[in-house]
Amino acid sequence: MPLVKNAKIVSDLFVHVVDGAELPGDGAVLISAARFLEDPETLSKRAGKTGVIWPNNRDLDDLVPYLDRLAAVALVFPSFRDGRAYSQARLLRERHGFEGELRATGQVLRDQFVFMLRAGFDAFEVKKESDAEAFASTARRYSVFYQPTGDGRVTALNRRMQLRHSESAGQ
Amino acid sequence: MYAYDELDRTLINERVSEFRDQVKRRLSGELTEDEFKMLRLQNGVYLQLHAYMFRVAIPYGTLSTKQLRALAHVARRYDRGYGHFTTRQNIQYNWIKLAELPDALEYLAGVGIHAMQTSGNNTRNVTSDQWAGVAPGEVEDPRIWSEILRQYTTLHPEFSFLPRKFKFAITASDHDRAAIKIHDIGLRLHKNADGETGFEVLVGGGLGRTPFIGKTIKPFVHGRDLLSYVEAILRVYNQYGRRDNIYKARIKILVHELGIEKFAKEVDEEWKLMDASALTLDHAVVEEIRSRFSYPAYEKLPHMPDELKEAAHDPKFEAWRKNSVFPHKVQGYSIVTLSLKPVGGPPGDATADQMDAIADLAQKYSFGEIRVGHEQNLVLPHVAKRDLPVLWKALDRIGVATPNINLVTDIIACPGLDYCSLANARSIPIAQELTRRFANHETANLIGRLHINISGCINACGHHHVGHIGILGVEKNGEEFYQITIGGRADENAQMGTLIGPSVPYAEVADVIEDIVEAYLALRDRPEELFVDTVKRLGVEPFKERVYATR
Hints:
The structure holds 2 protein chains of 2 kinds.
Chain A: E1 3-5, E2 8-10, E3 15-16, E4 29-32, H1 33-38, H2 40-43, E5 50-54, E6 72-77, H3 84-95, E7 101-106, H4 113-119, E8 123-125, H5 129-133, H6 135-139, H7 156-170
Parallel strand pairs in A: 3-4, 4-5, 5-6, 6-7, 7-8
Antiparallel strand pairs in A: 1-2, 1-8
Chain B: H1 6-27, H2 33-41, E1 45-47, E2 52-57, E3 62-64, H3 65-78, E4 82-85, E5 90-96, H4 101-109, E6 127-128, H5 143-153, E7 168-171, E8 185-191, E9 197-203, E10 215-222, H6 226-240, H7 251-258, H8 260-273, H9 283-291, H10 306-311, H11 315-324, E11 325-327, E12 333-338, E13 349-351, H12 352-365, E14 369-372, E15 378-384, H13 388-397, E16 412-413, H14 428-437, H15 441-447, E17 452-455, E18 469-476, E19 479-486, E20 498-499, E21 504-505, H16 509-523, H17 531-538, H18 541-548
Parallel strand pairs in B: 6-7, 7-8, 16-17, 17-18
Antiparallel strand pairs in B: 1-2, 2-5, 3-14, 4-5, 4-13, 8-9, 9-10, 11-12, 12-15, 14-15, 18-19, 19-20, 19-21
């Protein structure tokens, strides 16, 4: 499954380590929420980078205390239809100030890219090669955005207000 | 009318090109039908019994003549020459070809019309009072706020994959014509003691197999906080709404299972934690949207022009005027409802020729504006009273002056088994038969206000629960049967109807309705007592007795 970061297909530095398998001392790993929560203090202080795969039906409160020590959080789209991880992503970025990698996993298809970018995702485990290849062009598909999110894109309302101000300033 | 600016236009054009790419990928086989399903649904394309069905949004029911002509063009060029207006201020085309859809959409985008989120598990078309901006006594024009919500909900990055569909409706009048109590979020615009605009927010209303009347979650949310409060509700729903069972996924079930107090508390907690600054609608922002709405330059006209006095001698004109013409907030003007319920016709259908003709008449007599109401009729919202006689003649010629507004033949019906793959039974032929049974306008007038709503299945697109008489198609051993409820209503006193007894076969439905109506005429204590009030006073028993005694 290709990983997309910065609009390019890149190699994944994180290793998915299944529950029960031994963790390498260093090196970047992605582990399950269950495993992480068994011993979060130790795990979040590993020498290597640690990322947690957080299920979309679990409250973020249990994860929040460790966010500043995590290199990545991977959120899950069990199906294209299940949009819970969009809320989790915005909360992690906008409310809890998470600055590490925010990865979309599961059924990640081309037609979700813009929504995901706007919700704060910056890494994408894309299901289909062709979708991954189309990432850059798909991400540019929209130039107008009605809603404010934490991604910094200026909303249509704000652009109109700016336009108004510049018009009245010019008079 | 709201005029799109460059940004609105750019966005819908970008959406059209995205959809064109999605269709292309489907036609080339790159997308499976299952993958494509979700994408087409987000743009109003269903696969029905015979063909694709295409649902186009008419936000808060307002159309310009240019837009109505574009809808007519799509009916003529891409469909079979007609369209069907729905109960949620949409229009549906039933015979569209997938490969041509992107072109139809592009054409509509040219006049500022789109099909975004007219289906799928997202925030649907925001609906409002078809008399918004012209109804006497209205607090203020709710379309400003409808448009703000339309923009806010369009392609929302967080709420485009909700547990289930999500519908908003707004009213700003005491008499609710937008059926806000049967919406996921219903908003009643009113002012607080300081004269500031805000909303009573209702949540969890809806029909379908588990009908609920919406409950008030907050009596007053200030206008500036509307979007942040809505976002809090949607976020709670997105996270906690059920996704394990499609029939329990609407917000009404979450509200019901948690109880409105607990749900309200969850929303409040979320609302407090939010950094709402970006969503706050300060005065200037609201005024920016308001400034994009244009209003007619009304003339100073007499209350009772000579033309109207003269025409009063024509009983046919008078019958129509008394039935279909309503008071306007400006003296000398009227609101005119155009009946899309001709005797023997499918409710809510209009041909391309009718749409073009109505657009011409709107141009001439209604400042170029047309409205669509949830009762599946059209409205010319600004008609000078002096023009009523000549307008009536023109409307009559094209078959949209049946004087049956709010009467027994002004039936709301879903497409039913004639088109819909979900339906258990036909709706349209039942409606057609009933319009023939009650074709005599004098009889219909004698009966008075009576809303019959027909759904072809439990999904309740025909709002049967809230019809004064509700008719629900069910399937029994491969045959069409119908359950009859009475006493429902969709207005500010909304409530669900009560079942009168066992379901009846297709062939008997019209007889049963006639029995119910006859029983009402015998039972009402005076001619002014409406059907729904007689049912309220007496309960269902006497009606039940009448219907089943001989069956």
